[in-house]
Write a structure and sequence with these properties.
The protein is α/β, with parallel strands linked by helices and 244 residues long. It has helices at 2-11, 60-63, 68-72, 74-79, 100-103, 119-131, 169-179, 208-216; strands at 32-33, 41-46, 49-52, 88-92, 111-116, 137-141, 154-160, 180-191, 221-226, 232-238. Strands 6-5-4-7-8-10-9 form a 7-stranded mixed β-sheet, sandwiched between helices. It has a 3-stranded antiparallel β-sheet with strand order 1-2-3, with no helix packed on it.
């Protein structure tokens, strides 16, 4: 995995590309906007929650920090995904591929779709897949309101510390639900907003209550919340036959 960090640090010197949001089709009446708001946020609110600013690809090195192994226990999270070798997993907001590359060996007969809206992140993932000859990882360039998943193509959608930054959370989640097979699962890891002792900026944490509210709004059914991780919720939701 060291090659990811090496390439990440080199890549931070490259110029950023601008994500084009001019043609986004959305239902803006779902959102509220405020000119006076938390400086950590974008001034846009959904179901009472201000949306956090995106951590750009310039912060990719933070995603690969060695301390993450004991601060967040990612291997424990992966073990609790209960993966089958044939599963198709969408790593939404894949970033540098931190989870993608840890999951791919476990779905040897399946696939991991690494979805991100930042081409720079996908370039990093593509570099590693080519260098390491990984054949079951495919990158997907998402849009700010669409993960660009094929309908009913995914068993599990994993969102690790990503959902709270979605500029169009409802549209993105509807796209994810559409991409799930019937009975498919959405699993969110989010820093626990109930705990002020977790030293993460406020808008980059979410309460269990808020996550449940927002997932219910797109037809997902809550299955379980686990608390085995040091700082994050592990929330499991399911797509039913009638989920839209």
């Amino acid at each position: 995995m060291g090659i990811i960090l090496f390439v990440t640090l080199l890549y931070l010197n490259l110029n950023a590309c601008t994500i084009n949001t001019d043609t986004v089709a959305n239902s803006d009446e779902l959102y509220q906007y405020r000119t006076i708001h938390n400086p950590e946020g974008i001034g846009k609110f959904y179901l009472g929650r201000e949306i956090a600013k995106v951590m750009g690809h310039e912060g990719a090195g933070w995603l690969e920090r060695p301390s993450r192994i004991y601060q967040e226990k990612p291997q424990n999270a992966i073990e609790n995904l209960n993966l089958k070798s044939t599963d198709i997993v969408a790593d939404i907001g894949a970033g540098t591929g931190y989870f993608t590359f840890r999951i791919s060996p476990l779905v040897s007969e399946g696939k991991v779709f690494a979805v991100d809206v930042q081409p720079q992140m996908l370039d990093l993932i593509n570099f590693v897949t080519n260098e390491e000859n990984i054949t079951n990882v495919e990158t997907v360039l998402g849009e700010v309101d669409n993960p660009n998943l094929l309908p009913s193509s995914v068993d599990i959608a994993l969102l690790v510390d990503a959902y709270h930054e979605f500029e169009y959370p409802r549209e993105m989640m509807l796209g994810i639900v559409k991409g799930l097979k019937p009975g498919g699962r959405v699993i969110l890891l989010e820093y626990r907003g109930e705990n002020p002792m977790i030293m993460i900026k406020g808008l980059h944490k979410m309460t269990e209550k808020q996550v449940k509210k927002e997932m219910k709004a797109v037809g997902l059914v809550w299955q379980d919340t686990k608390y085995f991780l040091p700082q994050q919720h592990f929330l499991v939701f399911k797509k039913t036959e009638i989920s839209s």
